[in-house]
Amino acid sequence: MGKIKFSKQAAKDFEKIKQYPALETKVIALLQLIRENPFASPPYYEKLLGFENVYSRRINMHHRLVYEVREKEGIIAVLRLWGHYE
């Protein structure tokens, strides 16, 4: 689809993720998947209520990849990578 951009918070979250190799591997795989097709399934994704074009995918039981699809711009904005909708 396009380019992935990290919010300031997502960049901080990714620094935390790097401390855990298993999480880092999972996040990188998810980022590659959503870069190609942000709506590919599996793994399952869900649209977040109250937001337009914002979706979430599970990294593990505690952490979620939250991203916004900006189709007109060809950008996927990664909003969060740490926590559960914090």
Written overview of the protein:
The protein has a single domain, classed as YaeB-like fold. The protein is globular and about 35 Å long. It has 86 residues and is an alpha+beta fold. The longest helix has 16 residues.
Attribute tags:
86 residues; alpha+beta; YaeB-like fold; five-stranded mixed beta sheet
How does the SSE layout of this entry go?
Blueprint (H helix, E strand, L loop, with lengths): L2 E4 L1 H10 L3 H16 L8 E3 L6 E5 L5 E7 L4 E6 L6
Summarize the structure in short.
The protein has 86 residues and is α+β, with helices and mostly antiparallel strands. It contains two helices and five strands, in the order E-H-H-E-E-E-E. A hairpin with a 6-residue loop joins strand 2 (45-47) and strand 3.
The chain-level structural class is alpha+beta
Number of domains: 1
Can you give the mean pLDDT? 93
Distance between the termini: 27 Å
Largest sheet composition: 5 strands, mixed
